[in-house]
């Protein structure tokens, strides 16, 4: 038998069990991943789960089932009175035909919902798929009827009886011939899914009118943008019990900054600081997006501006998920140039003030009847977009380009501390605006301010207190390639390296690495001159990967006395601190001095007429203050938002309908959002184990430790696997993890993954990691990595993923030196410390 984990109902056949799960998912009640109670395998889709049950567990569950075996309290259970017809009492038999028909419809709805959520499927083909589904159902119905009649005739029944049965079959099977007739057109599909209780449909908001000419006739056209209500989206999200529980988690820690709620800005906000209210913190993002081929004519005609947002109440583990980046608005870039940002932001500002003052009410899981409040806490964009939406100048070659201070091009070359710059305040901002209204002549800005920003009308928000900068664009796509170009050019000129040697070593290294294989850097071109950066252009994660592993790649070729190598190591240290997921107050003070030292080192080593500090270098001086005000910098990165753009580009390419591309893309995105809520894709704290084997404890490499840790006997069975997945992270045998901190040296301790185990008799999906412990010898500054060695005798540890000091899997690189010595080194992705 197959037991549903959501409601406890038992299904005797695998087909009906799958349809039962589909009905749960169609109304958003199914919790993912689906965990097999027999072997602890976990699956993110119903299809894979059911296929696993049919392949490995069908004989043990179907062949040994008693037809009356139904769990206590199940809605299908009923006491049968022997004096009455059992069919009168057993709803399972009485409604069997209706249940089977509903199963078919549920399968069809799941099929159509999945197709509409896929950005690579044109909507025009979905009715054809539904029509084919109905045609197959009709053919199967006819086949069943024909075979049934033939069987009755072969059994010797009279023709009258056969004809009566045939008429009865025609009546009962009529609706089964076209089970998806309610979804056979685009109109019916739109109507069905738009009326779903978890659907947030975009609405068109008019900006203005214009005259367009076509075939010699001029007509009036309404220019509009697409807007998705924040209240509707939040209301849909809060219907998920697990999502509500995540929102209620208290993340505040007075000693460590690891979330936005730990910063001073949240603690002093008029809404967010009120612990009596359930308040949702909104982080807004804006960026321009080209949806057509940029090499073709009129490629900018259909460029759009996209507004996303995330819920800062969630940790970055969840906000980095594709499904937790929500759409706010889509508009044409040409309309932004024509009307500006204010008309587009006006509806959002109005909704934020309404939600912050009055909130919205509803009956939600866990909290019951409750009033939920929401407001804007941050705006994060790349530098150009942030200046544009805030009304500042969008040229970074001019003075006063910074949104936080009054920096000039001359001062940023001399001053490397925030204390030496005049900070922007609300009063100075208002004074500049007042001077701007009185300004006459060609100059269109006053100290960098061009216009008033509509977002200032939101309660508790002001552009001068938006302590947020995007380290992806500033560091990974700005400072890192610029400074790496200087360093590699210097190493080639003074330390005997060549571009061919560098490319060859990078290729060899990425042939060995077991993590981040997809972030392999491109082959580098020749370095023309210092300050020219590196080419070709790469993605942010590729620049980051190249920077992280460059010491391990080239360390044995360069002397520790090289000034260029020392500067590279200082850059490594700086970037590690910037991308740290948590900070202490002393760390922020230390970061301030590291930034000042780094900028001074760059000027001393590379400063010239052609090599100067760029505006992105100046933005570094504000990072310590931003951490104190808004928490770790990783929570403000735009990488997760940039990844979302691929959905719109692919959808636009597939749809090929640019009559109103904003409406098309917004609608398709919301269909994907609906499917994500139904499928549980926005919950990524679950562990997926796709393949495993069973063995007794005594056969494992550390049986005594397993018995002690899990309270097992040597003959007890455990499930083992060599690979686990959690969200976008994949843990494999051979990866290294940070498991603890050495008591004697204070250095981090590492362990190599041997296997993953789970107790057979435990019903939950807890997996334990068996690691082989290594001793950390030292931190090697020349390679910016930890040197480790194996313990003698071998020492093992058992822990859960929640026990890890950091969740990222690591690669252990083995270096061979000219003297024959072999050492193992581990490079951390960022600065890590144990709390």
Count of beta strands: 23
N- and C-termini, Cα separation: 47 Å
Alpha carbon gyration radius: 31 Å
Largest sheet: 9 strands, antiparallel
Estimate the mean pLDDT confidence.
85
- Strand composition percent: 15-25%
Number of domains: 5
User: What fraction, in percent, of the residue positions are helical?
Assistant: 25-40%
The count of helical stretches stands at: 26
Which stretches are poorly predicted, pLDDT < 50 over at least 5 residues? 61-94
Structural class: alpha+beta
What general outline do the C-alpha atoms trace? globular
Describe the overall structure.
It is a single chain. This protein is α+β, with helices and mostly antiparallel strands. It has five domains: 1-94; 240-391 and 454-469 and 650-667, no CATH class; 392-452, no CATH class; 473-635, no CATH class; 687-826, Roll (SH3 type barrels). It contains 26 helices and 23 strands. The longest helix has 29 residues, at 126-154. It is globular.
Characterize this entry briefly.
The protein is α+β, with helices and mostly antiparallel strands and 835 residues long. It contains 26 helices and 23 strands.
């Amino acid at each position: 038998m197959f037991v549903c984990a959501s409601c406890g109902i038992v299904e005797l056949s695998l087909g009906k069990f799958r349809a039962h799960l589909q009905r749960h998912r169609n109304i958003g009640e199914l919790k993912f991943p689906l965990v097999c109670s027999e072997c602890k395998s976990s699956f993110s889709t119903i299809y894979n789960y059911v296929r696993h049950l049919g392949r490995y567990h069908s004989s043990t569950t179907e062949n040994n089932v008693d037809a009356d075996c139904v769990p206590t309290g199940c809605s299908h259970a009923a006491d049968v009175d022997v004096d009455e017809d059992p069919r009168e009492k057993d709803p399972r038999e009485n409604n069997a035909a209706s249940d089977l028909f509903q199963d078919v419809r549920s399968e069809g709805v799941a099929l159509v919902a999945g197709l509409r959520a896929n950005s690579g499927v044109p909507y025009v083909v979905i009715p054809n798929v539904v029509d084919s589904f109905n045609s197959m159902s009709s053919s199967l119905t006819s086949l069943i009827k024909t075979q049934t009649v033939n069987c009755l005739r072969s059994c010797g029944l009279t023709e009258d009886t056969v004809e009566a049965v045939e008429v009865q079959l025609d009546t009962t099977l009529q609706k089964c011939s076209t089970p998806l007739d309610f979804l056979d057109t685009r109109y019916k599909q739109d109507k069905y899914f738009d009326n779903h209780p978890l659907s947030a449909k975009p609405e068109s908001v008019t900006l203005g009118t214009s005259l367009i000419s076509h075939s010699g006739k001029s007509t009036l056209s309404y220019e509009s943008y697409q807007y998705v209500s924040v209240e509707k989206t939040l209301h849909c999200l809060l219907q998920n019990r697990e999502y509500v529980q995540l929102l209620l988690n208290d993340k505040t820690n007075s000693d460590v900054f690891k979330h936005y709620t730990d910063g001073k800005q949240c603690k002093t906000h008029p809404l967010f600081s009120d612990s009596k209210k359930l308040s949702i913190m909104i982080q807004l993002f804006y960026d321009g997006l080209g949806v057509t081929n940029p090499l073709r004519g009129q490629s900018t005609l259909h460029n759009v501006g996209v507004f996303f947002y995330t819920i800062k109440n969630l940790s970055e583990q969840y906000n980095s998920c594709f499904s937790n980046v929500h759409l706010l608005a889509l508009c044409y870039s040409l309309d932004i140039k024509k009307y500006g940002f204010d008309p587009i932001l006006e509806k959002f500002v109005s909704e934020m003030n309404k939600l912050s003052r009055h909130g919205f009410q509803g009956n939600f899981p866990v909290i019951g009847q409750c009033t939920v409040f929401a407001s804007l806490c941050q705006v994060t964009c790349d530098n150009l977009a942030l200046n544009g939406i805030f009304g500042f100048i969008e040229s970074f070659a001019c003075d006063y380009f910074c949104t936080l201070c009054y920096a000039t091009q001359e001062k940023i070359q001399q001053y490397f501390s925030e204390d030496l710059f005049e900070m922007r305040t609300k009063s100075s901002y208002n004074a500049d605006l007042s001077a701007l209204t009185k300004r006459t002549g060609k100059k269109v800005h006053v100290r960098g301010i061009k216009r008033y920003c509509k977002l200032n009308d939101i309660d508790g928000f002001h552009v001068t207190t938006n302590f947020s900068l995007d380290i992806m664009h500033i560091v990974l796509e700005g400072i890192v390639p610029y400074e790496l170009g200087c360093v590699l050019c210097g190493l080639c000129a003074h330390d005997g390296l060549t571009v061919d040697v560098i490319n060859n070593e990078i290729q060899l290294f990425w042939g060995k690495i077991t993590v981040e294989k997809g972030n392999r850097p491109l082959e580098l071109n020749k370095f023309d001159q210092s300050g020219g950066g590196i080419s070709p252009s790469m993605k942010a994660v590729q620049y980051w990967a190249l920077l992280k592993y460059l010491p391990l790649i080239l360390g044995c070729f360069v002397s520790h006395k090289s000034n260029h190598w020392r500067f590279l190591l200082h850059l490594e240290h700086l970037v590690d601190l910037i991308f740290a997921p948590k900070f202490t107050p002393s760390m922020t003070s230390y970061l301030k001095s590291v930034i000042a030292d780094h900028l001074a080192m760059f000027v001393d080593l590379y400063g010239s007429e052609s090599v100067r500090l760029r505006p992105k270098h100046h933005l570094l001086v504000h990072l310590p203050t931003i951490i104190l005000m808004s928490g770790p910098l990783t929570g403000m990165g735009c990488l997760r938002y940039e990844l979302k753009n691929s959905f719109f580009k692919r959808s636009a390419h597939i749809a090929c309908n640019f009559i109103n591309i904003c409406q098309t893309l917004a609608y398709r995105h919301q269909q994907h959002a609906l499917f994500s809520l139904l499928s549980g894709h926005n919950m990524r704290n679950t562990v997926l184990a796709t393949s495993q084997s069973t063995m007794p404890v005594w056969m494992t490499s550390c049986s005594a430790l397993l018995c002690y840790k899990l309270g097992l006997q040597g003959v007890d069975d455990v499930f083992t696997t060599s690979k686990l997945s959690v969200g976008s992270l994949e843990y494999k045998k051979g990866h290294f993890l940070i498991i603890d901190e050495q008591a004697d040296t204070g250095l981090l301790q590492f362990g190599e993954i041997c296997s993953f185990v789970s107790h057979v008799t435990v019903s939950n999906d807890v997996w334990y990691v068996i690691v082989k412990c290594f001793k950390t010898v030292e931190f090697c500054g020349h390679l910016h990595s930890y040197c480790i060695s194996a313990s003698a005798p071998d020492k093992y540890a058992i822990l859960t993923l929640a026990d890890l000091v950091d969740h990222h899997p690591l690669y252990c690189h083995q270096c061979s030196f000219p003297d024959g010595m072999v050492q193992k080194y581990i490079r951390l992705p960022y600065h890590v410390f144990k709390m």
